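thread: overnight batch results

M.L. [08:02]
morning all. the overnight job finished for the chain we discussed friday. pasting input first so we're all looking at the same thing
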Amino acid sequence: MAQIINFNSFVTPNVTAQAEVIAPQPKTHINPFENRRVPWSGIGNDIRSASCVDEAIAMSGLNWELGLGDIYDGAGHVIPHYKAITRADNGKVFGVTKDKYKPVQNADAFSFADILLTQGATFEKGGCYKGGEKIWFLMKLPSRSYGGDQHDLYMFLMNGNNGKQSLFAAFTTIRAMCCNMAHLVSKNATYKVSIQHRGNLEGKMLEAQEVMAGATAYFDGLTHTMEELRNINLTRAEMGKIIEGLFPYAEDATDRVKRTAVEKRNQLTNILYNAPDLQNENMNGLRLVHALTDYESHAIPARRPEGFEENRLINLVEKPMLADKVIQLLTA
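M.L. [08:03]
and the structure it wrote out:
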């Protein structure tokens, strides 16, 4: 039986509530759904041939060390009790920290990944963000089928070199037929787990166990999430109501803000009704969530700033997705 959802509660107060459902976009000679690529395409380095962490570090361009440097005031005096976290090979400053801080070197941060290789994971890509402020490995796990679709399973290992962000693992899926990246809300499991760096061999074993336990719980829980979403039937009007709530604008917003919100609504609606991979899916919660993950993975803004692809990938890894917000609404 379809669940009854209070969609009015989802639309942000004090915004326009256009009830009109945007019609499917007319087909043109340009197919926006062709040549979908994974969000990390063109980002980082290919490390699939690496047989150990040391090789993966070198192939990722992460074989440099962190150092601590003095900080000076305007008069040239050393500021006590604080140090600058620097990249030793070029002096780039990543952050400021207390002088007792000990940076975790790149190779040490991911050293437990050697154990993950013995448990079915393989190296995929590696790289750094903003010159090394954050470093990451992408590792692949055996594929699974969810909701009748093949999904490739991945985990990002990421560490911050700025003194603010600690080591964590984030789990994500790629829907094989359309390359959508998603870390959907999973039943009783989180897509991201923090990892306590311990350093010794026993500690590496524990770190690897934490990562694999988190991955197993998360990916197992997705089956329930997909089934629950497929059983939530939605009308086109209800779909439109949710989309409006995702991209609201205030009554007194500027024309530019309104145009941006409407363009986002139109892009998502076009995916929802016209994406080839969704044509065999009924109008239900799962179809909407698949459209959202497509939008977040592939939509191109009108203004594309420098580093857009890299920033989008990091945001997809670190932050909740719009799809998560919708899943929480539909399954509340």
